[in-house]
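ok trying this again, last paste got cut off
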Amino acid sequence: MNIISLNCRGTQNKGFSNLIRDIKKEYKASLMCLLETHSSGLVAKKIFNGCNYDKVFIQDAVGEAGGIWILWDSMIWDIEILAYETHYVHLKVRNGTSPSWFMTVVYGSPHYQARSRLMDSLINLVDSISHPWVVVGDFNSILNPHDRDKHFCNYY
């Protein structure tokens, strides 16, 4: 019973469903959070059908940007989607008879103003938290401008 959060940078590669099935098997991932899926609608549903999970929540990508998928095995997890917006999905999670807890899955926009709105939304969620809470994902945020140069200059 493991949870994996993965920035997949797109899901439309032919082998993507096989990759997710392999990760699920290798790491016994019964709950997977996929970020930056770049997929929506019927395309997303077709891809999901090959991933070997029986439940999914899809927060559609905007155009070809973003997208959050929550995939889980319903025999292991009881998940209730409490809130969602373009850049986050907020869940109440329970495993068997264990106490409930909250999880917020985040895919932050690379644009500062949208990230600022995301942070405001997360701050507003705080008042509704009454159990343990974990926030996972990709905030697309760096601490210092020189960090960006150091990490990305070799890739361009």
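PB: full thing came through this time. Confidence is low (pLDDT under 50) at residues 149-156.
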